[in-house]
Design brief:
mainly alpha; Butyryl-CoA Dehydrogenase, subunit A, domain 3; globular
């Protein structure tokens, strides 16, 4: 099916892509209500602008670019900080094998990332988009996507690392006197 045919049947495109777009906005916004509003705003924009779509990227990447921009704009508009964990009832990923404390720690670490870094992490590791697609969505270069992801992963590693106490070497008083 050509990209124009996909856009002509916008209702089918919406039904097919909404779950992924919603998860993207939820991953960026961190709050279910805002994520749903932002996703709806993104689809409204996409519908209005559908005739401008050139087909140079997959329609899903085009929709995600609109959704990411809407989510980042929504965060700026409302100045919401991601303080609530994702709602496990609305999030369709399996969680049974996950350790709850680890999930909370990861969500808290993600909350401390800049929204654009969070968007890159969601697009790469949740949707498995390649750097070129993420670059298109974030309107940057693939090299900059690598830099954004690198900084985000460094920050996550720091935030999730449990500090290991370093052993303190104590010298015995006898060793000090022997000098």
């Amino acid at each position: 099916m050509t990209f124009l045919a996909q856009l002509d049947d916008f209702a089918a495109l919406y039904e097919r892509t909404y779950p992924a777009v919603y998860r993207t906005t939820l991953g960026i916004c961190g709050e279910a209500g805002l994520a749903a509003d932002v996703a709806q705003d993104a689809y409204e924009s996409a519908f209005r602008e559908r005739r401008r779509f050139r087909g140079d990227v997959p329609v899903e990447a085009w929709l995600h670019r609109i959704a990411v921009n809407a989510a980042l704009s929504g965060l700026r508009r409302t100045r919401i900080r991601w303080a609530q964990p994702l709602d496990p009832i609305r999030d369709d990923r399996p969680t049974a094998a996950d350790d709850g404390a680890d999930r909370v720690a990861v969500r808290e670490a993600l909350a401390r990332l800049e929204p654009r870094q969070r968007a890159a992490i969601v697009l790469r590791y949740y949707h498995d988009f390649d750097y070129a697609t993420i670059a298109t969505i974030l309107e940057t270069s693939p090299g900059n996507v690598g830099a954004i992801l690198s900084r985000a992963l460094d920050r996550l590693r720091l935030d999730l690392d449990t500090p290991v106490p370093t052993p303190t070497t104590h010298r015995s008083p006898e060793a000090d006197h022997g000098r």
